[in-house]
Amino acid sequence: MLDNYLLQELVTFAQTGTLAKTAATLNVTQPTVTRGMQKLETDLGVQLFDRQPNRIRLTATGKLAAREAAKLLQANHDTAIRIQNFDRNQRVLKVAATLPGPMIVLQSLKDQLPANLQLAPVASLPEPVESLRNHAYTLVFTNHPLTATDITNQLIGTENLAIHLNKFMYQANQSTVTFADLAGLSFVVPVDIGPWRAIIQDNIPDAKFFYQKEREALAEITKFSDFPYFATNVSPFDPTLPLEATVNDNRRLLPISDAAAHMSIYANYLTAATSRVTPVITTLRASWPET
Q: Where in the sequence is the domain holding 20, given as residue range(s)?
């Protein structure tokens, strides 16, 4: 059994190149590092260092040992995190999403959901599969099903994009609009809209987007200007959108007909967690707005 502190000393030496810098980085004395490296060589039964009168460096075996030590330390760290996350998830049902729609609806349903439910801020999850496997979250919502043998998916519903347009604009005389109809316009948009951001930017030619971090600021802009702004069938559930954004508004709400304006929402979870997440998914699906 190799001690973690010896592995850390070896990895740090490989990174810093000297015993003095290794000792300073680890906040120990240089003789402590020297004894540690000698003990590691004894434990492994190999020569890790080429020792010269004024220089010490890793042998080829030492370099390999340093790489393997780094892997072991990372594995130990990851294991500890998984255990801690698992323990936490036994007490708290943590939910995350890569887009705001599901979280907005869930927030409005808090009184109907388990008391231990915890909604994370909407964020980019670069590794949503891993976030489930390491128990960082119990339930993750995405706009595509996560494909893994230990993960189950359920379709929650569809989020449909629409646009508020000034009623005197010629596009507002239509029953629906396309992204092409919106070409060249300027829009005010919330920052935290997940994959919708790429969709509107990629599909509306020559458009300008003024992103607003605060929903209240967005409401003020829409109240005192004619900028178009987006909505979805989830928007009525959003408590952060002040009434001023829609009351006495000179705009018409028009559905966007393009296929890209209709986003499927999926619940993803470890199959082993099915019984824990089923009440949340059932409540959300029953309340999901269809239009």
A: 4-89
